[in-house]
Amino acid sequence: MTSLKREISPPPPVQGITTGFRLVSYNMLAKAYTRPAQYSHSPFGCLNWRNRSQATLTLLRDLRSDFLCLQELDMYGFYRQNLKKDDYSSVYIQRTGQKPDGCGIFYKHNVAKLLIKQTIKYNDLAKSVYADKVYEENYLQRDCVGIMAAFRLKGAPFNQVVIVANTHLFWNPSWSNVKFAQAKYLTKRLAEFKTLVSKRFRCEEPFVIVAGDFNAKPNSKVYQYLVSGCPGHQSWIANNEVVAYFQELALEEPPMPLCSVYALANGREPKFTNCKPNFKETLDYIFFSPSRHIKLVSVDPLPESSESPDVVSGLPNFYHPSDHLPIAADFEIIKE
């Protein structure tokens, strides 16, 4: 197998000194959704819960991240208990409508202190200004959720607050307007949360990161909207071959500018983050709002080809316990 890990592993954190942090986003593939008929291409035994759970724990630990934004997390108690041994604390929201999975943010409690959190229930769209009048109320009720949390970084050179948001938007490619409404509601709630954090904790400029499975390709209306407020976004869109009419759409800009870490670091999004025999697309992203106090240092490499030995027959397999790949970014705190 071709290794996809960074050639140089990050050094272990020094207690009391923080110059940066690392964040991972990962759709884990919920236990409830690992139907053998849907993953008949996967090697025998790799879908077994005992095998997958241990492989997932090993992967999460090997990523050595300060923040883990996990989607399709349906065995929250299991992962909370086991990752607690690795100094992780966590916050979690389960999907509405009795769905078994949800979104969780795990954070190293020796790196970050939780200040405040809020949850996002996209079913509330039906009662919001983002509910398009042409749709019936139940059209927007897809039981999708998100979670936002503000953290104070311990040992930072100044009073730095980081807002981390994690979300999972609706999957159906035919319902793009639902995903677009969810993206607009997400940014609205995030902007309000940022204002609240700034006032309550007297932080002039909280750093904002939004991670998750957006179920949107780089040439989608959702992606275009999310990056439309960031300088240089048109060049990223061109590199990702967005069709011309999306570039010509007079989309309103989101309440805050958001940049994609992979587009900024590499000039384009990854070739794919979700890999099955008949579907290989980029759906997962880490976005951030530019700040003079924090800069993007690096992103983890991903396969450039679906013929890479560890993904060639599609996922999950014994190398990757989910049909998604984890994405990761390292940030550095700048002291002016």
UniProtKB/TrEMBL annotation:
It comes from the Eukaryota. InterPro entries: CCR4/nocturin_mRNA_transcr, Endo/exonu/phosph_ase_sf, Endo/exonuclease/phosphatase. Pfam families: Exo_endo_phos. Residues 47-324 form the Endonuclease/exonuclease/phosphatase domain. This is Endonuclease/exonuclease/phosphatase domain-containing protein. The lineage of its organism: Eukaryota, Viridiplantae, Streptophyta, Embryophyta, Tracheophyta.
